[in-house]
């Protein structure tokens, strides 16, 4: 299973050719989105038309949410690594969501996520 981080989803939504080509190659894998990534994408919308387009695109992917236990672990990781590695609040929750469902996280945010040794990270294509 592969979960898509926000940066990858932005490329997909913009029709960035390497992102679309990569999605085609991995189409045999189950591809999903952390629910918080969906919320970040909607938060970035500038108007109702754009939001409807994003919501329609999100319907093509199953959403995965952190459970309460995952949130506890994300809090511990956030507290342990926020100052030293600049991991953000949402990044800690997104990472723990991927860990909890045993998924690879497709992202280019390797710097912040690399401190979480249990997280499987893939940089899906060249930027």
Element layout with pairings:
Elements: E1 2-4, H1 6-13, H2 17-25, E2 31-34, H3 35-43, H4 48-58, E3 63-64, H5 68-85, H6 89-100, E4 104-106, H7 110-113, E5 120-122
Parallel strand pairs: 1-2, 1-4, 2-3, 4-5
Helix pairs in contact: 5-6
Please tell me about this protein's structure.
The chain has a single domain (2-122), classed as Rossmann fold (3-Layer(aba) Sandwich). Helices cover 56% and strands 12% of the residues. It has helices at 6-13, 17-25, 35-43, 48-58, 68-85, 89-100, 110-113; strands at 2-4, 31-34, 63-64, 104-106, 120-122. The protein has a 5-stranded parallel β-sheet. Helix 5 (68-85) packs across helix 6 (89-100).
Short description:
The chain has 127 residues and is an alpha/beta fold. It has a single domain, classed as 5'-nuclease (Rossmann fold), CATH 3.40.50.
Q: What fraction strand? A: 5-15%
Enumerate how many helices there are, as a single number.
Answer: 7
- The total strand number stands at 5
SSE arrangement, N to C: EHHEHHEHHEHE
User: What is the correct CATH architecture?
Assistant: 3-Layer(aba) Sandwich
Query: Ranges with pLDDT <50 over ≥5 residues?
Result: none
The percent of residues in helical segments reads: 55-70%
Average per-residue pLDDT, rounded, comes to: 95
Give the overall shape: globular
Largest sheet: 5 strands, parallel
Structural class call reads alpha/beta
CATH top level label: Alpha Beta
CATH topology, by name, is Rossmann fold
Number of domains: 1
Radius of gyration computed on alpha carbons: 14 Å
What spatial order of strands do you see in the largest sheet?
3-2-1-4-5
Q: Give the N-terminus to C-terminus distance in angstroms.
A: 22 Å
CATH superfamily, please? 5'-nuclease
């Amino acid at each position: 299973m592969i979960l898509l981080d926000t940066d990858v989803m932005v490329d997909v939504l913009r029709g960035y050719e390497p992102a679309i080509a990569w999605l085609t190659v991995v189409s045999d894998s189950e591809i999903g989105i952390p629910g918080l990534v969906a919320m970040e994408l909607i938060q970035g919308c500038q108007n109702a038309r754009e939001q409807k387009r994003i919501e329609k695109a999100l319907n093509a992917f199953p959403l995965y949410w952190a459970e309460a236990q995952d949130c506890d672990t994300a809090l511990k990781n956030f507290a342990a690594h926020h100052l030293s590695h600049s991991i953000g609040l949402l990044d800690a929750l997104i990472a723990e969501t991927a860990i909890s469902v045993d998924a690879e996280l497709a992202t280019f945010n390797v710097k912040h996520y690399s401190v979480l040794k249990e997280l499987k990270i893939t940089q899906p294509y060249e930027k």
